[in-house]
Amino acid sequence: MKSTILKNRALHVVAMLVLLVGGLTFASCVSENGEDIEKSPIVGSWISNTTPTYYIVFDEYHQYFITNDINTNVNTEVGTYTFTNNTLTCKVKGTNTTKVYSCSVKGSNLTLTGVTGATGVQQFTSYTNTRVRR
């Protein structure tokens, strides 16, 4: 009878240690603000499939810029964005203009369809800048 009680206590201690280690492991995965933030599929650089070519860059801080030359710091449009439920909302800096797009990301292709403040369908391909800055 004593050995059964000791085995049960040993199992309880082992179970408690496993739970403790598991809990600490999951707690260490949470970001500093208490939320795990998944990288948005639109974050990155995109090149238009039109002529003239232009680029749109979305960063992880919810800022975007549009430029004709990705290697210069001359932007044609700058602003902030939100992206939820495949809806992209861009607020142009320095104006009261808001552009809303229905957004689709499939592999390395981005399609923006104007909903409010923007018209037409715009096609982009993921872009990686290979030019080395000096």
Helical residue percent band: 10-25%
* Spatial gap, N to C terminus: 78 Å
Report the uncertain regions: 27-31
- C-alpha geometry: elongated
- Residue-averaged pLDDT, rounded? 81
Question: What does this protein structure show overall?
Answer:
The protein is of the alpha+beta class and 134 residues long. Helix content is 19%, strand content 39%. It is built from one helix and eight strands; from the N terminus they run αββββββββ. It has one helix spanning 2-27, and strands at 44-48, 55-58, 63-67, 77-84, 87-92, 98-106, 109-116, 121-127. The chain has an eight-stranded antiparallel β-barrel. It is elongated, with a radius of gyration of 24 Å. The relative contact order is 0.13. The model is unreliable at 27-31 (pLDDT under 50).
